[in-house]
Write a structure and sequence with these properties.
The protein is α+β, with helices and mostly antiparallel strands and 106 residues long. The chain has one domain: Arc Repressor Mutant, subunit A (Orthogonal Bundle), CATH 1.10.10. The protein is 60% helix and 17% strand.
Length: 106
Amino acid sequence: MGSPTSEVLDRLIHERIRLGIVSALAAEERMSFADLKRVLRTSDGNLSVHARKLEEAGYVKVSKGFEDRKPRTEYRLTPKGRRALEMYLEQMETILSEARDALERT
């Protein structure tokens, strides 16, 4: 039987690349596409797909512009995204605590 907490995890954030994106943006005010790609060690296509899902959910804000005549895409975590990450982390802490307690009982 699963924990009630585990059933309400934000599936959008729970995916590895998306969790990496929101975590990186929680630590930095803004990051470029290139910086996120480097930090997450992922492909352009993979990062684009996952960042778009977070943008559609209102978790990240995307700004596009030019720097030295080169296109530049920057990402920021929105207040909604920060709240979603905080809630996700609290839920994960609860799940981990329950798992530790269960292991100690065995």
